[in-house]
Amino acid sequence: MEIIPSPTKIPLTNPTLVTCISVAPDGRDFFVGQAADGQHPALSRWSLPEFSQMQVPQLSRLSAQQDTCHVLTRGKNGLLGVTGISTQRLTLIDLTDDSQSEPVNENVVWANIAEPFLATSGTSTQIQHLESQNIVWRQEPPASRKTSHASLVPIIAFHPNRQEFAVGGSGESSILLISLLDKSPAGVLPEAPERLRWLSFSPKGKYIVAIDAYAKSTVVWETRTRNLHRPEIFGRKADDYWSVAFHPDGEHFAMGMLSGYINLFRLSDGQRISSQRQHIGRVQALAFSLDGSVLLSGGDDGQALAWAVA
Description:
mainly beta; four-stranded antiparallel beta sheet
């Protein structure tokens, strides 16, 4: 498997940096999040695999003059979750009828949809049921937001089996695993970054990966043993990384660097099997297509690229 050179450039009309990319669970389209520049909105939507532009619902929270998209999260039932850096509010859009709602009545900096749950972090770090909107878990006491950046909040990652979740980035050097069934502790992952930019399980739940908020480390654990995976390769030896995306096979992942490089790793042995550079500046966002044949990337340079993977 490798990333093929000479990617396709997505014809974005907004020239500002690309902050987020999110592929639909059915693989038919993807959203690109950017900074609004006064003339262009912060969201655009593109079809796969044609890369033709699609209509986007109008968002008052991310108007052309107002905000920068900070988080895009997709649900399997047509839900799109969007947060902005400035407004710090979560908008849920039902893409089947373009209806919108704000299910959390407080500041939200980060969000993750994993039906039937919605995880959010900002004023509070919590999980609620999407249909009933009942809070099923809340971090107590709330994590301190006294960091060098107001957007640094705890992050929640759901295991693919929806039987447990991980939460980290609260200012402690560990990540907690918690049972979704009875909300009891299920384990601890050691040597974690104290503040996180990214946290996620691999598609089959074999691994969990965290990126330090300041790009100082990229840590990988094996979920079965709770042990560090390939610490001679990852951890503090894998610094200067800013974005990650798992390949659908769960055994490979792409990592974007501050320098504009995108590296493809095989997780079993930690081998870097491909490296490409097209972006100038940070690779802010990465996402694979549903079949893994395309890797989407976005960066500080305002480019969104589609790389063939073979």
